[in-house]
Amino acid sequence: MTFAANGPGEHGRSVPTSPKDEAAVKEGFRLASFNQHASDLVSFERTIPDSRPPRCRDKSFDYSSLPKMSVIICFTEESWSTLLRSVHSVLNRTPPELLEEIILVDDFSQRGHLHAKLDNYLTRLPKVTLIRLPSRQGLIRARLRAIEIARGPVLTFLDSHVECNVGWAEPLLQRISHNRRVIVAPVIDAISSRDFSYIPISANQRGGFNWAMLFKWMPVPNYEKSRTGGDPTAPVRTPTIAGGLFAIHQRFFRSLGFYDPGLDIWGSENLELSFKAWMCGGSMEMIPCSRVGHVYRSTQPYSFPGGNVKVFMRNNLRVANVWMDGYVNLFYLMKPELRNEPFGDISSRVELRRRLKCHDFKWYLENVIPELNIPSLQLVASGEVRQSNL
Ligand code: UDP
Ligand code: MN
Fold first, then answer.
1. Residue 203 has pLDDT above 90, yes or no
2. Which Gene3D superfamilies match (predicted)?
3. 75 lines ligand 1 (CB under 6 A)
4. What are residue 190's DSSP bridge partners?
């Protein structure tokens, strides 16, 4: 397939679709929960705007002093064009000296293009390995499988619908080369699910969470801004990460017991990693000079064996019961229906935490996210108030 240099979506522009494409657009949304039709019109190697703070361009890196990375991309039922644009953006925008390999993990996809057609296409790309899981495992165990074969000292995880921006890899690797116990995340720009335009995002937010165990973007507090001295290129310490896109030293990840393999399909593994990274002697940062675009979407197009709410809540219960000490009761306060829900055996994860001699959750709240509102557990009653219809 060839694409014009000024073709659809070049320079990160939106892809216009005409009314006659309405049926194709609708079908694309049904399959992918984004405008797959628009994505299919865009080159795998399109240009996107450099969204870094301008001063990032002045930084230079000595590649020979940086560790190499294995990029790991797990996918299930991903669209052809978004998957390959993700892979090409890694190959085109990562210095070859720093890229050990790309490991793709197919989490038991059924869509036709992800079988022989994909095998065939990948034979012409360097450094790419594809593993196929014989049954659906979910994102977390798919990643654990990739880690088993990854060779790079640094593991970089990406979603299967991303576009890495210019210079994205170097500042991540540089931070890890200075400090092996820091987990780093790029600033995640948005790729529109409606028209595939590339939308740079303000770096003025960082990861937090609420007591319903939901990840939340929160404004960077003033104490953190003063720590970075107003330098727009300085790493921003973050209490949690969104989880899809980050880099970690393989040895640090191993020392943290990787992920809880009891987590299913999707969700909460980002909080598990965030809590234990901080509580067990490491830290997390967002790196403004590293930018990666991600297609945000409001629903997930793939099946969720066990039911999406049930699986996600079970994952939350596992993580909360291992890491949050008495504060788990705040989660139960928000979700009283989960009080007696089973979440499987967590003894090996509790043992891991004990063995690592981690700080407690109170320490994490006080030192890592002091701005988080902590409701009192001494409540006399809780519930909701409604106006009656008189
Ligand atoms: N994924 C997977 N197996 C699953 C669920 C998700 O491999 O059972 C992959 C998915 O294809 C994507 C990544 O995990 O590359 C993150 O999922 P998604 O993009 O749906 O999460 P979101 O970005 O919406 O949080
Ligand atoms: Mn995603």
1. no
2. Spore Coat Polysaccharide Biosynthesis Protein SpsA, Chain A
3. yes
4. 199, 294
